[in-house]
Amino acid sequence: MSETDALRALMEADRWVDRVSAQRNHLSEMAELSTLEDELRALSKALQEARGAQAPVQQAYEDAANEAERIRRREHDLDATLAASTGNARELGVLQRELEHLRDLLGRAEDRELELLIEIEPLDEVVAAIKARAQPGVARRAQLQATILELQATLDEEIASLRLARAERARALSPELLARYDNVMVRVGTTGAAQVNAGRCDGCRIVLAPLDVDRWKSQPAGTFMSCPECGRLLLP
Ligand SMILES: [Zn+2]
């Protein structure tokens, strides 16, 4: 194999590693997960706000219900006292008025309880609606996380085997040429060589000056001119 072919084979191996690595790091599932996480964060914030609005009304409702219950018990006790009373008409009259007062209080407490119950219902619905919206998202998130791990494990295996093939190809190059190639690759990434395609370096896409193209064409076999822009070894 000529050095040019060996260099090209190494460049292609590195391009494969780069392609699969890019695929591994830009899975469509990752983009979907990121969008989904933004949505879930927004829903979580909305849920927090909805609960913030719900909590004081819920507390007021419970207080009103307790108050109504307390009055109801007093009314019940007083009713029993009145039924068992052997007092005179004046005493019975006092008890009766007290009972009427309690019934009045109870009526108002029950109205308050009902008002708060009506007020709390839509707040509960908002909380429930946010939870219902988030639920499929939470399930999808778990699904996506599992899929991403699975795909990345598969692609990592593929990358590992591509790297082995790459190491094999690297051994076909002279140590000097490989060192040049690797130096450029460390500096500019992806590959240390590129092809000249229609007067353009396909590594950095710059159009070579006519003088550089002439120089590149007339270089003796086995020497490799560097791209004046990216420094990659230029291959025919
Ligand atoms: Zn270039």
SSE topology:
Blueprint: H1 3-25, H2 28-84, H3 89-170, H4 175-188, E1 193-197, E2 200-201, H5 210-217, E3 233-235
Parallel strand pairs: 1-3
Antiparallel strand pairs: 1-2
Helix pairs in contact: 1-3, 2-3
Zinc ion is lined by residues 194, 201, 203-204, 206, 227, 229-230, 232.
Q: Which ligands, by name, code or SMILES, are bound? A: zinc ion
Q: Briefly note the CATH topology name of the largest domain.
A: Helix Hairpins
Widest beta sheet: strand line-up: 2-1-3
In total, how many domains does the architecture comprise?
Answer: 2
Overall geometric form: rod-shaped
Number of strands: 3
- CATH class division of the largest domain: Mainly Alpha
- Terminal CA distance reads 15 Å
Second rung of CATH, namely the architecture of the largest domain? Orthogonal Bundle
Point out poorly predicted stretches: none
**Beta-strand share of residues:** under 5%
Helix content estimate: over 70%
Q: What value does the average pLDDT take?
A: 95
- The topology string of helices and strands comes to HHHHEEHE
Structural class: mainly alpha
- Main β-sheet description: 3 strands, mixed
Q: List the total number of helices.
A: 5
Protein model, in words:
The protein has helices at 3-25, 28-84, 89-170, 175-188, 210-217; strands at residues 193-197, 200-201, 233-235. It is rod-shaped. It starts with a helix and ends with a strand. It folds into two domains: 3-172, Helix Hairpins (Orthogonal Bundle); 176-235, no CATH class. The model has no long low-confidence stretch (mean pLDDT 95). Strand 1 and strand 2 form a beta hairpin. The longest helix has 82 residues, at 89-170. 11% of the residues are buried. Strands 2-1-3 form a three-stranded mixed β-sheet. The protein is mostly helical and 236 residues long. The chain contains five helices and three strands. Bound molecules: zinc ion. Zinc ion (ZN) binds at residues 194, 201, 203-204, 206, 227, 229-230, 232. Zinc ion binds next to loops.
